[in-house]
Amino acid sequence: MIDVLKQRAARYAELGKLIEDPEVYGNSKLFAQYQRERGQLRALAESYEQLQSLKQQMAGSEEILSDAAADAEMKELAQAELEELQEKYDTLWQEAQDMILLDDEDDSRDVILEIRGAEGGDEASLFARELMENYVRWCLTHGFKFETLDEVESEVGGLKSGTYRVKGDGVWRWFKYEGGGHRVQRVPATEGAGRIHTSLATVAVLPEMEDVDIEVKESDLEIKAARSGGPGGQNVNKTSSRCQMRHLPTGLFVDCQSTPSFHKNRDEALRILKSKLYQMEKEKRDREQADKRGAMVGSGGRGDKVRTYNFPQDRCTDHRAKVSLPLGKVMAGDLDELIEAARNWEKEERLKAMAKAAS
After folding, report:
1. Are 43 and 11 a contacting pair, CB within 8 Å?
2. Could you tell me if 62 and 169 lie in one domain?
3. 22: CB partners within 8 A, 6+ apart
4. 204 and 316 share a domain?
5. pLDDT in tens, 78-87
6. Domain boundary among 101, 132, 161
7. What tens digit of pLDDT does each residue of 166-210 get?
8. Cβ atoms of 205 and 175 closer than 8 Å
9. Structural domain includes residue 106
10. CA dist., res. 158 & res. 179, Å (int)
């Protein structure tokens, strides 16, 4: 894989020169494309440079060890330094291989997050809100920005549906594993007999599209202005600032009321729609590739149950990675270990697919 890493580093350097070209700089679509690709390659390019630097330092230590004129103390220091450098090299090389193996064309994109209460009525909507609030806590610990684009509240204060934007360096790389069905098992506050209920909240994770990424014809859109609902005072509820947008060829629907301005809501709705269209095309492409190589690929769609949150047993189980963690820890916003387990699961699945394709 070192040749692949070297190629990615060379491409990163090439893109740095390309974006300085006046012709590219003047082409907004091409400039954005190159910038995004460069952002995706940055971590790999930096890893390659660090590996090369460590290699040179190790060569210096090895030279001392092979030098007949070097005294015993100098060789002892060189040996200790070589072992330390080798350990750093091995760790960094493993991380670089993981990045190559888990390479995703959307790694440099921000995220559009949709959360819905699904099966289970009020209890499902209440858990959907808890999921959203948990993601907010997790984003705070990682320096990600969490923005509300649209929310529909249930009668009991839960979340019927919510659309959010999450921005930050590498946010897609981590958030993409949240897509799917999140099942909760617990005794609802309204349950007098103490029976455990099972409910479901769903999460869709979409890579956010820029205006230049996907072209949507105006003639393919049905757009309506409506009065906004929920908190915000009389002005929000009386003005028709809410944008409801339907893409006629696919039937995709977006409802956005994030600002008091209809035009701004329209722009946000269009960005969300583009993200949905892109995700549809990507899932279709992934399925086709999976069919060819015989791999099992999870789409992260709402139909895929990814986790169970069992409150009576204080356990959160990720069904892909087959790992369980204390629920209290997870619901406090500490998702890192679960997500890392999901990354390892994906890595193993890809290695299996590669081995099967090679056989």
Report:
1. no
2. no
3. none
4. yes
5. 999 999 999 9
6. 101
7. 999 889 988 999 999 999 999 987 676 778 999 999 999 998 887
8. yes
9. no
10. 20
Last residue of a domain, one of 69, 101, 133: 101
For helices 72-101 and 336-358, angle between their N-to-C axes, nearest 10 degrees: 80
Pairing of strands 197-207, 111-117: antiparallel
Residue partners of 356: CB distance under 8 A and separation at least 6: 293, 294, 295
Contacting residues for 217 by C-beta, under 8 A, at least 6 apart: none
304 shares its domain with 177: yes
Structural domain total, the chain: 2
**What is the distance, to the nearest Å, from the Cα of residue 339 to the centroid of all Cα atoms in its chain?**
10
Specify the pTM: 0.75
- What is the H or E stretch that residue 159 is in? strand 159-167
**Comparison of pLDDT for 89 and 69, the residue scoring more:** 89
Closest CA to 198 of 182, 185, 180, 181: 185
Q: What percent of the chain has pLDDT over 70?
A: 90
Residue 259's closest CA among 99, 178, 148?
148
Domain membership of residue 149 (yes or no) is yes
Residue 159 domain flag: yes
Share of the chain above pLDDT 90, in %: 57
**Averaged pLDDT score across all residues of the chain:** 87
pLDDT for res 290: 55
Does some domain include residue 38? Answer: yes
pLDDT exceeds 80 at position 291: no
Question: Does the pLDDT value for residue 160 go beyond 80?
Answer: yes
Domain that holds residue 9: 2-101
Orientation angle between helical segments 2-18 and 72-101, nearest 10 degrees: 70
Looking at the structure, do residues 33 and 118 belong to the same domain, yes or no? no
Q: Judge whether 13 and 43 are in contact, CB under 8 Å.
A: no
155 and 57 both lie in a single domain: no
- The answer to whether residues 49 and 189 belong to one domain is no
